[in-house]
Amino acid sequence: MPSIACLLAICPGFALTQPAATPERKCKVEDARPAIGQAYSAELAEDARRAAGARDVRKVEPGGAYTMDLRADRLNIEVDTTGVVRNVNCG
Q1: Distance CA 33, CA 47 (A)
Q2: Residue 79 CB: number of other CB atoms within 10 A?
Q3: Where does 24-90 sit in CATH, by number?
Q4: SS3 for 90?
Q5: What are phi and psi of 50, to 5 degrees?
Q6: Mapping DSSP to helix (H, G, I), strand (E, B) and coil, where does residue 74 land?
Q7: What is the CA radius of gyration of the chain?
Q8: Is 0.90 topped by the overall pTM?
Q9: Does residue 39 sit in helix, strand or coil?
Q10: What is the pLDDT along the chain (91 residues), one digit of tens a residue?
Q11: From the centroid of its chain, how far is CA 24?
């Protein structure tokens, strides 16, 4: 049986190949805009997530601490202090 070093010498790209990536789901924010102006609820969030085609949804409240990572498959629903949706965006 050949050693790993031998395989790497014969096929240097062999160890670098990766499985094909799953196509990234893109969030379409324009399809979630009808949520703006409505009172936030879990049902509203799920409907907006589904409409946008996002994988995840995140409620963003004033003064909250959130990660700054951008994810093309996440819908952010920004609410004001009364719980009304003021903006939606992907990221």
Answers
A1: 11
A2: 20
A3: 3.30.10.10
A4: strand
A5: -65, -45
A6: strand
A7: 21
A8: no
A9: strand
A10: 555 554 445 545 544 444 444 556 689 999 999 999 999 999 999 999 999 999 999 999 998 878 777 888 999 999 999 999 999 999 9
A11: 9
